[in-house]
C-alpha cells in the first residue's frame, strides 16, 4: 500500500508530462507541415512517447489536436489572468463585449496560437467533417457564451427582445474572424470597439 | 491582306478556346488536389496545351488561378442575368443590400464555384502572400462596391455620416463569409436579410 501511495503521484506526474508533450508536439507539427501531413506517428516521435501512449488516450489525430487547442485556450486565458471561456457581466454590454474582443485580439496575435490555429482553420475550410468538429468542439461553445451574454442583455433591456442572439453575435465576432482568416484588414482594439458600437447602435440614423 | 483578315479571327478564337481550357483546368485541379500540389505543368496537361502557352500569358500558378476566379465570377453573374460586380442603387439601401447578399448566397452554393474557392481560401489562411493577393485582386474590389454604395447612402441620409463604410460593410458581409468558410451555421436568404436589418437598425432598442 505504501508503495502504491507513493507511486501514484509519480505516475500521474509522468502522465501529465506526456500529455503536455503530446499537445505541444501536435500543435508544433500541424503548424509546420499542415493538417494532412500531421500523423499520430509524427506526434509520438516529436513528443518522445510511443504511439500506443497516444492511442491509449485518443483515437485520431483530430482528437489530439482539438484537445490540444482547448488546452492552449485555457493556458492563454490563465496566462492573461482571465477565467477561460467566460464573458464578463458588469451590466454594461458594450464594455463587456469590447473587453472580450480586445482579449481575442491579443490571443490572435499570440505566435503560440497563430500558426497551429491557421493550419487547423485552413483544413476546416476544405475538410467539412473536420470543420464541423472544430465548430462543435471549439468554436461553438465559445459562441454560445455570446448567446448567453446577449440573452442577459435582452432581460435587462440593453438588446431588443425580437433579436436572435445567435445571429446578432456574428455582427461583431465574424468581422474579426474574417480579418484574421483572410487578411482583409488590420486588427486593433479601436477596430473591435467600433464593431461593437456599430452593431449595438446600427448604421442608420436614430 | 485577305489571308490575314480571314486568319485573325481564327487565331483569336483558338486563343479564346485555349484560355478557357486553361481556366477550367486550373479551377478543376485546385479543387481536386489543393493549391500546393497544383502546378503549371498539371494545368497545361489537363488543358491540352503546352506549358509555354501558359507562360506566354501568365507568370505563375497564382496568376492563372486569380484570373480564372475573376472569369468565373463574371460568368456566374452573366448566367444569373446580373452585371458582374455591381450593387444596385434603387434608393432603398436595405433592399439593395439584401438583393446582393441573396445573389451571393446563390453563388456560394454553386458547385462550380465552391470547391475551387474553398481550395484557394484555405491556402490563403496559411499562405499570407497568396491571402493578400486574393484580397487585393478579388475580394478587395468586391468590398469596395459596398463602400461606394454605403457612401451614397450617407449622402442620402440612410447611413449616419460618422460611420466608416469600410468597417460597416463587414457587419453583413463577414458573417456570411464566416458561415461559409467555417460551417458555423446555415446560409439562407432569411439569414442574410436578417443581417442587413440588424446592421442597419442595431441590436439596442431605439
UniProtKB/TrEMBL annotation, chains A, B:
Domain HTH tetR-type: 16-76
Residue ranges of DNA binding: 39-58
PROSITE patterns noted in UniProt: HTH_TETR_2
Keywords, sorted A to Z: DNA-binding, Transcription, Transcription regulation
Pfam families membership: TetR_C_11, TetR_N
Transmembrane segments: none
Protein known as: TetR/AcrR family transcriptional regulator
